[in-house]
Amino acid sequence: MHVATILTISNVATASSKLRGLGAALSQVLRELRRCTTEDWPILAGAGAIWAAVVLALAGKGVDGLQPGSYGNNLLLYLLVLAVLVFIAGARLLYQARPASPIRFLASVIASPEFGRRLVRGIPMLTALILFMPAFSAMKSSIPLFNSHNWDAAFIAADNAIHGGDTWRLLQPALGYPIVTSALSWAYLAWFGVIYGASIYFCFMARQHELRAQYFITYFASWTICGVILATALQSVGPEFVGPLLGDHRFDEQMAYLRAANEQYPVMILKAHDFLLATHFDASSELGAGISAMPSMHVAMATLVALSAARHSRAWGMGGYAFLVTIMVGSVHLAPHYAVDGYVAAAATGLIWTVAGRLARWVVRRTGEPESLPEPAPA
User: Fold this and answer.
1) CB under 8 Å to 221, separation ≥6 — which residues?
2) 135 inside domain
């Protein structure tokens, strides 16, 4: 009986210790929730206000900015990229730790307070990202309802004045090989994975608070200023669409080359071209629809990735700027954009990034927290 009493007391003590540990972990998660809410709410509030303004502006033109299908598709895209990043992160941890029991090791990582803090920290911002893009796509499709003037002729003239002729012709001797064109097309489409992946990284994984805030301020501001305000004011359709939409056939030779190259190696961007043209004639505002060339959001977001990567490390910065150059060159060679579309996008995003840096310092320092999260403790 005495032994049973001792065992009972021991079990109670063990259970009490586990409850205290669970309570401490929950307390840490709640503290992180309060901290990230304090840090992120100005950015989330700004993104929410922009989203509401876009939806209301669309409603004023009789366009539904609340299409469940677009929001569902965007959610699936983010979840897919998140799953890939989680797999990569888990594989990296297993490679570094090489535990005797990988499943038990990963379970301990998931049960750790650090994992819970990062999860709680990232979900509100991820929700904002999921909601933001479908409204932008609907707005992009509706630009002609807000501005009937077209600037393509002016941008073609600007390109010719800067480069002494059509920019794609100047690039053709170096890039005009079907295998090179195919590679650039794949890189151009990989942009989606890079942008979604970078946003998820900054939601959950980035340790530097100010860099994280600067990224998201620039992200939402760039889509708003470049992708909505400038795109509406400077409405243009780009080289690939001036023929079918405006009757200007000066880029027909470029499109003929792309289709001929596609017969040897897949030029996947032609599928995007056909999709955009079809959704334009169908007046569709689904996710990814909408024709707007100036400024190039591909270049704008690639600029954001390059600037952010350069703040992370020199090696990442070199990769980021190589990605930016690839996207800028590809945007001209593959016909979505004039060169000036990329120049304006890069310059505008760089300016937004600079202003966002000052705002990010205010956003973070008002919380009184350290500028960076601590390194995860080894398991």
Assistant:
1) 352, 355, 356
2) yes
